[in-house]
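so i finally got all the pieces together for this one. its two components total, 223 residues if u count the protein bits. some of the lines might not be protein, just check the labels. i wanna see the whole assembly predicted at once instead of chain by chain like last time, that was a mess tbh
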Amino acid sequence: EIVLTQSPGTLSLSPGERATLSCRASQSVTSNYLAWYQQKPGQAPRLLIYGASSRATGIPDRFSGSGSGTDFTLTISRLEPEDFAVYYCQQYGSSPRTFGQGTKVEIK
Amino acid sequence: QVQLQESGPGLVKPSETLSLSCTVSGYSISSGYYWGWIRQPPGKGLEWIGSIYHSGSTYYNPSLKSRVTISVDTSKNQFSLKLSSVTAADTAVYYCARSSSCDYWGQGTLVTVSS
């Protein structure tokens, strides 16, 4: 089973700032099948990025994903008020699919 | 517009079987994709339960495999989850989703295990 470790646990930033979230895998993610999700309280997660770097339909271009192998990054170039939420990474290249523990992006 | 909707009892007694269905609209399950279940205990992170391919092939989380069954009914455009011998640790919001990269999600349904 691939263990995904996200860091930091909490990121305190102001609107307009840049957010950089990390997801590290315990072994290489097959075909870079790595996704990022955003979850707000009381809502289902929303797919942001798939295949490590492809934006899902309707996702603003301030969200970008990068990385390969075991190290992946989600970058939010300029935080908007609606971006404060919890973010999860997930690998879907091997079974069982696994999620990271999440990074909370909070308003400073 | 693809939409998924979970349905089933919100309260299940310990040792009984949790049963949920996910109804898909806007896309025919038989056309392709994996269809999966994910859960989230209150205040905690996401856990993948398992997936089923439109052909019926299944993949389960080894931690739950002995208790989980996922099935598909293409005539109703639904897929279902059964989790047996539940305990309080199975209390969670249960989500259904399309595809291994979960591009579409249901709104989630809270299932509480309690006597």
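Chain B touches chain A through 20 residues (CB under 8 Å).
Chain B has a mean pLDDT of 95.
anyway lmk what u think
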